[in-house]
């Protein structure tokens, strides 16, 4: 592959109150790739994702987006935190979709999408409105653009959240267990939208427990265990011939969906 | 046997005087509450600031004001400050200053609680789309906080409107002062005080209904 590396993590570490949650994560995401993080809860997947757009600050190592360090710059060998304005500008290039949707409760679906377009990207109201209509249509919600979040189902809220993130035309989209808070019958509608984004060439980094979906859409899968990458590779290798014992037992929990699970 | 004969002509003869007094009270309330809300909002942010000195100073302000009767505060500003050489305030300005400071302390607590109750997830979403710190406050935190605290804001506004009656103590010719004036000049005790009470009741109730409409309009949350 000759696609340039979009996101690069080198030895990323993070601890919370003396507990090392990330113990040196290395990861590359090429442009247009879908990369997935799987692992038990507490393995550090979500924390890593949150470090990528600086909702958490990593303690060591570096995260580069398009070759530019996220959150810090190097000043004579010392790590210096970037200004809030610079950090905000970096975040605008990375979209994030949350487990709990996190829609702004006081704004309509359309207002949720246009806020960043007008205030961060400086687009006119009319142009932002047009972009919002386009993306709400893409996620199948053009009829609901004037509704407030509390008037929408969980699946609809999550699709608005995806439209909000992708409308900013980010370089990279982060998905943090975006179907975990949904009723089972609403999961499919969200996965359909994500699949169509992946097919359109959007670069995506996801944390998910939807193993079938991960296997289907991912170019690369990383199995995290206790803050380290324990296994990584293409989905066929990770899911179908897992050599790592822990990975085997982790996958075995998903109802024997995968051939190598110990039954 | 009650031996009191009502004579309501005293009220009709003084209708203009009472109306002016009511409007003056409303004007004082609006001015004080506007300033009070501004003080309260700034104080709430200061209270939540990481800078201990600032936060502590605001804590003292809030606790001090909440534990002192408003009337004392008015007297202190009106009679006390000139003794200290501050003479630029007339009685209207003095009263607005006192009620603003008083309202500010109460609104500070309302806004502080509101700001603290904003779920972290909204702030994170606003960070994730790249809003700068002040934009997060302006477009997400404050609008959400406003909606959460609306019922408390309403309660405080009504209560503070009634507090304008204390301006009578420094001869500001608002409704209570006007009623006392009529009472003193005509000895029509019942007519004067019943009318003043009715006007306070009607006005406060009208404010309550108006605020309930605002609440209904903006309660679009959760």
Automatic annotation (TrEMBL), chain A:
PROSITE patterns in UniProt: ABC_TRANSPORTER_1, ABC_TRANSPORTER_2
Membrane topology type: Peripheral membrane protein
Domain ABC transporter: 7-251
GO CC, alphabetical: plasma membrane
SUPFAM superfamilies, per the entry: P-loop containing nucleoside triphosphate hydrolases (SSF52540)
The keyword Nucleus belongs to this UniProt entry's keyword annotation: no
Record keywords, A-Z: Amino-acid transport, ATP-binding, Cell membrane, Membrane, Nucleotide-binding, Transport
Listed GO MF terms: ABC-type amino acid transporter activity; ATP binding; ATP hydrolysis activity
Cellular localisation: Cell membrane
Main location: membrane
Family: Belongs to the ABC transporter superfamily.
PANTHER family in UniProt: AMINO ACID IMPORT ATP-BINDING PROTEIN (PTHR43166), GLUTAMATE_ASPARTATE IMPORT ATP-BINDING PROTEIN GLTL (PTHR43166:SF9)
Protein name: Amino acid ABC transporter ATP-binding protein, PAAT family
TrEMBL record, chain B:
Domain ABC transmembrane type-1: start-end pairs: 18-211
BP-aspect Gene Ontology terms: amino acid transport
Matches recorded under InterPro entries: AA_ABC_transptr_permease_3TM, ArtM/GltK/GlnP/TcyL/YhdX-like, MetI-like, MetI-like_sf
Transmembrane segments: 22-46, 58-80, 92-111, 139-158, 192-211
UniProt topology in membrane: Multi-pass membrane protein
Main location: membrane
Keywords: Amino-acid transport, Cell membrane, Membrane, Transmembrane, Transmembrane helix, Transport
MF annotations from Gene Ontology: transmembrane transporter activity
Subcellular location: Cell inner membrane; Cell membrane
GO cellular component: ATP-binding cassette (ABC) transporter complex
Protein task: Part of the binding-protein-dependent transport system for glutamine; probably responsible for the translocation of the substrate across the membrane.
Family, per entry: Belongs to the binding-protein-dependent transport system permease family. HisMQ subfamily.
Protein name: Amino acid ABC transporter membrane protein 1, PAAT family
Organism from which the protein derives: Rubrimonas cliftonensis
């Amino acid at each position: 592959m000759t696609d340039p590396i979009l996101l690069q993590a080198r030895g990323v570490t993070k601890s919370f109150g003396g507990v090392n949650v990330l113990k040196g994560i290395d990861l590359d995401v090429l442009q247009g790739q879908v990369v997935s993080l799987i692992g038990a809860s507490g393995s550090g997947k979500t924390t890593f994702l949150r470090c990528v757009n600086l909702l958490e600050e990593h303690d060591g190592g570096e995260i580069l987006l398009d070759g530019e360090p996220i959150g810090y710059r190097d000043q004579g060998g010392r790590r210096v935190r970037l200004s809030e304005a610079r950090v905000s500008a970096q975040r605008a290039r990375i979209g994030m979709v949350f487990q709990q949707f996190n829609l702004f409760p006081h704004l309509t679906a359309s207002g949720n999408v246009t806020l960043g377009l007008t205030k961060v990207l400086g687009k006119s109201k009319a142009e932002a409105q047009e972009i919002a209509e386009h993306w709400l249509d893409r996620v199948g919600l053009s009829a609901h653009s004037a509704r407030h979040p509390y008037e929408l189902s969980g699946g609809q809220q999550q699709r608005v959240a995806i439209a909000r993130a992708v409308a900013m035309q980010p370089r990279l989209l982060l998905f943090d267990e975006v179907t975990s808070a949904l009723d089972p019958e609403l999961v499919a509608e969200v996965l359909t939208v994500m699949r169509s984004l992946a097919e359109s060439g959007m670069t995506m980094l996801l944390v998910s427990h939807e193993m079938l979906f991960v296997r289907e859409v991912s170019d690369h899968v990383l199995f995290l265990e206790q803050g380290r990458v324990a296994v990584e590779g293409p989905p066929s290798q990770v899911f179908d011939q897992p050599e790592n014992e822990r990975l085997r037992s982790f996958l075995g929990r998903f109802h024997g969906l995968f051939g190598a699970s110990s039954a | 046997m009650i031996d009191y004969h009502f004579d309501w002509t005293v009220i009709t003869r003084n209708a203009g005087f009472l109306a002016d007094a009511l409007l003056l009270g409303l004007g004082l309330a609006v001015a004080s509450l506007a300033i009070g809300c501004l003080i309260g909002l700034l104080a709430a942010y200061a209270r939540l600031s990481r800078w201990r000195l600032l936060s502590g100073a605001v804590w003292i302000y809030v606790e001090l004001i909440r534990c002192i009767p408003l009337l004392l505060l008015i007297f202190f500003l009106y009679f006390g400050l000139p003794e200290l050489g501050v003479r630029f305030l007339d009685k209207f300005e003095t009263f607005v200053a006192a009620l603003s400071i008083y309202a500010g302390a109460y609104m500070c607590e309302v806004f502080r609680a509101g700001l603290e109750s904003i779920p972290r997830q909204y702030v994170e979403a606003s960070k994730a789309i790249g809003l700068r710190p002040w934009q997060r406050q302006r477009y997400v935190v404050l609008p959400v906080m406003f909606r959460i605290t609306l019922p408390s804001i309403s309660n405080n506004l009504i209560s503070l409107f009634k507090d304008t009656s204390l301006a009578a103590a420094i001869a500001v010719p608002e409704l209570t002062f006007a009623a006392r004036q009529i009472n003193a000049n005509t000895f029509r005790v019942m007519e004067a005080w019943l009318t003043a009470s009715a006007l306070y009741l009607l006005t406060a109730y009208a404010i309550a209904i108006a605020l309930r409409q605002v609440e209904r309009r903006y309660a679009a949350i959760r």
